[in-house]
TrEMBL record, chain A:
Localization of this protein: Nucleus
Taxonomic superkingdom: Eukaryota
Cellular component aspect of the GO annotation: NuA4 histone acetyltransferase complex; nucleus
Biased composition (Low complexity): 572-600
Keywords: Coiled coil, Nucleus, Transcription, Transcription regulation
Swiss-Prot/TrEMBL GO biological process terms: regulation of transcription by RNA polymerase II
Coiled-coil ranges from the UniProt annotation: 263-308
UniProt-recorded name of the protein: Enhancer of polycomb-like protein
Keyword Transcription in record: yes
Entry's family note: Belongs to the enhancer of polycomb family.
InterPro entries for this protein: Enhancer_polycomb (IPR024943), Enhancer_polycomb-like_N (IPR019542)
From TrEMBL, chain B:
Name by which UniProt lists this protein: Histone acetyltransferase ESA1
Organism: Neohortaea acidophila
GO cellular component terms attached to this protein's record: chromatin; nucleus
Pfam family membership, one: Tudor-knot
Family statement drawn from the similarity comment of this UniProt entry: Belongs to the MYST (SAS/MOZ) family.
UniProtKB keywords: Acetylation, Activator, Chromatin regulator, DNA damage, DNA repair, Nucleus, Transcription, Transcription regulation, Transferase
SMART domains named in the record: CHROMO
Active site, UniProt feature: E390
Principal subcellular localization: nucleus
Catalysis: reaction(s): 2-hydroxyisobutanoyl-CoA + L-lysyl-[protein] = N(6)-(2-hydroxyisobutanoyl)-L-lysyl-[protein] + CoA + H(+); L-lysyl-[protein] + acetyl-CoA = N(6)-acetyl-L-lysyl-[protein] + CoA + H(+); (2E)-butenoyl-CoA + L-lysyl-[protein] = N(6)-(2E)-butenoyl-L-lysyl-[protein] + CoA + H(+); L-lysyl-[histone] + acetyl-CoA = N(6)-acetyl-L-lysyl-[histone] + CoA + H(+)
Length: 600, 505
């Protein structure tokens, strides 16, 4: 007690006792007692460490006084005083050897043991006299109501009975954890049977029904085996606190200060742990592989042996005498010709290199990260798309798509380019307003090449911190294929027209009107043309482009053919998700297609 | 030596008058015949057994372990009795009540208050002063034998914390009234203990009655191995056991049964033959096993329930996880019989090397206690720490420790004398014996060995101390000496990770 310490040290300080200073040891006769010695006749009061209320107890005081008297040199008190305690006697009627058989042999070394009580006591339910009575009745062929048993189960052992009872008790406790505080009806037999798992022996399962009937008749709200009151949950309610039977509460968890450093430490530890688990897993996997190979090897050896045996039988049967040494080969495995060892291998025995403790590289270097997996998945998607494209290309290799066959032959290079000429401006009202896209270098073209169609502000594109992967959305233009040849007209508000000669000498008047560009917003392509009231115009389109276009629609991404030059269009980041989603759907559709395609 | 019921000035005097058998109630103090002597005793509980009232009494100035059920004819009604003060609980009874109940609501409220007050200004709350005079209970690392009562007693003395007190006072009054009412209407008298316990357990107003429950020993008798033992104190074994004449405890797994058939069945299945841990010491007579409370929760809980029967100041309020249990056994061909144990905090901020220590009653007075104590100091020596048992000590604990300290200190001093270097400092005594300086001083002063001669402090090997040692040596020569041989101790201080500490073991 702090009190003790304070008092003792105060006392010591008064006399300036230095606890570090060696003190001379004397016998009593060697020192002359001076009466004015302050300690003489005045044994300093020492705190005993016993509670005040108990310290004054009669028996303790008697012993202490006797000891004090002795310390002061008084003649030894006649009888030894002691503290009386309630009696302890030899148990009556206990045949100790039966109860505790002589089963222990002391091992030579110190015992090391880690099994728990639960491991060592078997089924925790123990039958009482009442249970024993029922069990003998059961084994006489009667059920709990003294009716003859209908089943043909034979005899139920005590162990099986206890196991079944234990199962019923434990299952009830599990299914109805609050049965003690609220009245609930006991689980039915069916419910009990449903809950059966592998832990219940087959015997106990077969006896569950008759035992259940008995158990049901006996079961109250509490456990049949008395148990101490332990609160599993951290409920600190007053009723519990006041209940002297509630014990072994969980201690409150020590608060740990959360710091960045601590968090980082935890993360490092988790990473390391994961790495180690990963290594262990790999090792096990390699072991499995090795053992499978071993097994295969053995099987092959056996087959070889059997085949040889057959050959031998045949030889014997047919009385074939082989050349000298030939027969031996059938019996003995020939040593394979020694392989020329590769120089590198010779010097280095095959070892599995494990990360040593001193290895300072960060654990994440060796661990797969989520980003890696995502990159891998992306690459896989791209590969698949490429493969599919290739596949489609192959399917279509010998075919010509007549439906997409250009009605107009591609222009000859040497053809004179038809010139666009202004057309009289009609009334300035259009079904949709003319585009006002800010892009400066946008080719002002009439086709659906949507290079600048998306309303992207350049500031945005540059402001978005990481460069989003570019997704090229390319709907091939009508003609001409070769953009170099195409002379970009000036942006002109007035509609243009030109005369062009098509296949078979047909003459076309092509109009070029101001139409809104196809807009892309949130990944949805809206082509103003489709809304156009005028009949759609058809333009010849190259087959390659048709293909690309289709793929593009299917996947949401279109790889721009090399010939199309470097024009690409970045998407605003928000659009990606929508595209990804669309591409997912498309992929599914494609997958459904594929089997049919490959079958055909 | 002041008698316990010395009345302080200004305190209300209890009312005294003659009582009849039917007016006796809980809280009354009467003279009761104890071993042919009249002794003042307080009635803690009343029951009717076989039609006649029986009283559970606590004798003043006797340890609680001598509390017992007495028939009416042992109560001397020819003398005046002291009536309890129901409205205003008098100090001594309050104190006594507090000492005796183990986990009352009041205590826990007080504990909570203290916990709360930690954040408040220390001097502001009266509770806080209590924290100075007694140890503040820690909800975190808590001592195994830390009894919440300690704090409350101190709180009481300060006259602070009216809240728990008031409630408690009311509760006591309730019991008394209820008891009186029960007396008056015979039909309401609980017929058996079972009934009473049942009533207490499931009745509407629980608080007061639970206090009563823990003041009364709940187990009648236990059978353990080849012994039958009378418990000393209340222990929170299943409440159903209060109705059993005998509780059977398996000597090896310490599991408990209220029914002999069940126990016999258990013995058929139980395969444990020694405490479930590692043997760390073995000599010709005894072995020590180290058991981790976290790894062997059931066994350690069983051990605590058992030892609570014999340790008043132990509390089972919290679980066993933060403790290691060093269990001493005697070997034979049946197995390792548990003789005693001490528990030790895995990480004790106050430097205690023992939390609870107990020699089972059937092995007491055979010198085993000294072995347990010695063993605890041998562990401290290996740890390189100075150890001391956690307070409060029980009466038997104090005597055991004093005897051990006296023996080892006197031995060491005589050794020095024989070596011809009769000089030693208090701290050297402590470090050699792994004892705290305070305990060394305590022992030297208590034995009147620390004296002042020729303006110098000296240590005197008193004739009495030398005589006691000679007597002991003679006894050992005849009967053989039991002591721990440090050479046979195979032990390294267990190391616990920071994570274990964080997650509370
Ligand atoms: Zn057992």
């Amino acid at each position: 007690m702090s009190h003790t310490r304070a008092q003792a040290s105060r006392h010591v300080r008064q006399r300036k006792l230095n606890t570090k200073q060696p003190l001379r040891i004397f016998r009593e006769r060697e020192i002359d007692e001076t009466p004015d010695d302050e300690s003489r006749g005045n044994i300093p009061h020492v705190e005993t460490g016993v509670e005040k209320g108990e310290e004054i107890e009669y028996h303790l005081q008697a012993v202490i006084n006797a000891a004090n008297a002795a310390a002061l040199g008084a003649a030894a008190a006649g009888k030894q005083s002691y503290i009386p305690t309630p009696e302890t006697v030899k148990a009556k009627g206990v045949v100790y050897d039966d109860l505790y058989p002589k089963a222990f042999a002391t091992p030579a070394t110190y015992i090391r043991f880690s099994s728990t009580v639960e491991d060592c006591i078997g089924v925790s339910y123990c039958m009482n006299d009442e249970d024993a009575e029922f069990l003998s009745k059961l084994n006489d062929g009667k059920d709990v109501n003294d009716e003859p048993r209908k089943d043909k189960l034979g005899q139920c052992s005590e162990d099986v009975f206890e196991e079944a009872m234990n199962y019923l008790e434990e299952t009830t406790a599990r299914l109805q954890p609050f049965a003690a505080v609220e009245s609930v009806s006991l689980p039915g037999l069916e419910e009990m049977e449903r809950a059966i798992d592998d832990n219940l022996s087959a015997d106990a399962q077969t006896w569950l029904k008759p035992v259940y009937q008995y158990w049901w008749s006996k079961k109250g709200s509490r456990s049949l085996m008395p148990s101490i009151k332990v609160r599993v949950l951290d409920t600190s309610n007053d009723a519990d606190d006041a209940d002297p039977y509630v014990c072994f509460r969980r201690r409150e968890v020590r608060q740990t200060r959360k710091t960045r450093g601590r968090d980082a430490q935890v993360v490092e530890k988790l990473k390391k742990l994961r790495l180690e688990l990963e290594q262990a897993r790999q090792l096990v996997q390699l072991v499995v592989q090795r053992e499978q190979l071993n097994k295969e090897d053995l099987e092959i050896s056996r087959r070889v042996f059997e085949e040889r045996k057959k050959l031998k039988d045949v030889k014997i049967d047919k009385n074939i005498i082989g050349e000298k040494g030939e027969d031996e080969e059938l019996l003995v495995n020939q040593k394979p010709a020694p392989k020329a060892k590769r120089p590198q291998e010779a010097g280095r025995p095959a070892t599995i290199r494990l990360r040593s403790a001193g290895d300072r590289s960060a654990p994440e270097d060796e661990l797969t990260q989520l980003a890696d997996i995502q990159a891998q998945a992306d690459a896989e998607v791209q590969r698949t798309i490429a493969a599919r494209k290739e596949q489609h290309r192959r399917w279509n290799a010998q075919w010509e798509d007549e439906t997409w066959r250009p009605l107009t032959p591609p222009l000859d290079d040497n053809d004179d380019k038809p010139r666009w000429a202004p057309l009289a401006l009609p009334d300035a009202s259009y079904p949709t307003p003319p585009p006002t896209l800010p892009s400066k270098n946008s080719p002002d073209r009439d086709d659906v090449e949507m290079q600048d169609a998306a309303p992207i502000r350049e500031e945005d594109a540059s402001a978005g911190a990481p460069q989003e992967p570019e997704i090229v959305f390319h709907i091939p233009g009508a003609y001409p294929q070769d953009e170099e040849m195409y002379v970009e007209p000036k942006r002109d508000p007035t509609p243009l027209c030109r005369l062009r000669y098509g296949r078979g000498g047909r003459c076309w008047l092509e109009a070029r009107r101001k139409r809104p560009y196809a807009l892309i917003s949130r990944g949805v392509v809206s082509d103003s043309e489709s809304d156009d009231e005028e009949p759609p115009e058809f333009f010849p389109i190259d087959r390659q482009k048709v293909f690309d276009l289709r793929v593009g629609f299917m996947t949401g991404r279109v790889a721009r053919p090399e010939s199309m030059g470097g024009e690409r269009r970045g998407w605003s980041s928000g659009d990606q998700a929508a595209v990804a989603g669309a591409s997912g759907q498309q992929q599914q559709a494609q997958q459904q297609q594929t089997p049919a395609g490959s079958a055909g | 030596m002041a008698p316990r019921n010395d009345v302080k000035d200004g305190e209300p005097q209890p009312e005294r008058s003659y009582a009849t058998l039917s007016t006796l109630r809980v809280g009354v103090k009467a003279m009761v015949d104890k071993d042919g002597e009249k002794r003042k005793a307080e009635i803690l509980s009343i029951q009717t057994r076989k039609g006649s009232p029986t009283f559970y009494v606590h004798y003043q100035e006797f340890n609680k372990r001598l509390d017992e059920w007495v028939p009416a004819d042992r109560i001397d009604l020819s003398e005046e009795v002291e009536w309890p003060l129901p409205e205003k609980v008098d100090e001594k009874k309050k104190q006594k009540t507090k000492e005796q109940l183990s986990n009352s609501k009041a205590i826990n409220k007080a504990l909570k208050n203290i916990n709360r007050s930690v954040s408040e200004s220390r001097e502001a709350t009266p509770l806080d002063t209590s924290a100075k005079t007694s140890r503040r209970p820690s909800f975190q690392g808590g001592k195994e034998n830390r009894d919440p009562n300690v704090t409350v007693i101190a709180t009481e003395e300060l006259g602070g914390t009216p809240l728990p007190d008031d409630e408690h006072t009311v509760d006591l009054a309730d019991i008394q009234d209820a008891a009186a009412a029960a007396k008056a209407v015979p039909g309401h008298v609980p017929q058996t203990r079972e009934e009473e316990v049942e009533r207490l357990r499931f009745g509407g107003s629980m608080t007061q009655n639970q206090t009563e429950i823990s003041r009364v020993r709940n187990l009648e008798r236990i059978q353990m191995g080849s012994h039958e033992i009378e418990p000393w104190y209340f222990s929170p074994y299943p409440a159903e056991f209060a109705d059993c004449d005998m509780v059977y405890i398996c000597e090896f797994c310490l599991c408990y049964f209220g029914d002999n058939t069940q126990f016999t069945r258990h013995r058929k299945k139980c395969t444990l033959l020694h405490p479930p841990g590692n043997e760390v010491y073995r000599d010709d007579t005894v072995s020590f096993f180290e058991i981790d409370g976290r790894r062997q929760r059931t066994w350690c809980r069983n051990l605590c329930l058992l030892s609570k029967l014999f340790l008043d100041h132990k509390t089972l309020y919290y679980d066993v996880d933060p403790f290691l249990f060093y269990c001493m056994t005697e070997r034979d061909e049946h197995g390792h019989h548990l003789v005693g144990y001490f528990s030790k905090e895995k990480e004790c901020s106050e430097g205690y090397n023992v939390a609870c220590i107990l020699t089972l009653p059937q092995y007491q007075r055979k010198g085993f206690g000294k072995l347990l104590i010695q063993f605890s100091y041998e562990l401290s020596k290996i740890e390189g720490k100075l150890g001391s048992p956690e307070k409060p000590l029980s009466d038997l604990g104090l005597l055991g420790y004093r005897a051990y300290w006296q023996e080892v200190i006197v031995d060491l001093l005589i050794d020095r004398e024989i070596e011809g270097t009769p000089m030693i400092s208090v701290e050297e005594l402590g470090s050699t014996l792994a004892m705290t300086t305070n305990d060394v001083l305590h022992t030297l002063q208590n034995l009147n060995m620390l004296r002042y001669s020729n303006k110098n402090h000296v240590i005197v090997l008193t004739d009495a101390a030398v005589a006691a040692r000679d007597k002991l040596k003679e006894k050992e020569r005849v009967k053989g000496k039991r002591m721990i041989d440090p050479e046979r101790l195979q032990w390294k201080p267990p190391v616990f990770s920071a994570a274990a500490r964080t997650w509370n073991w």
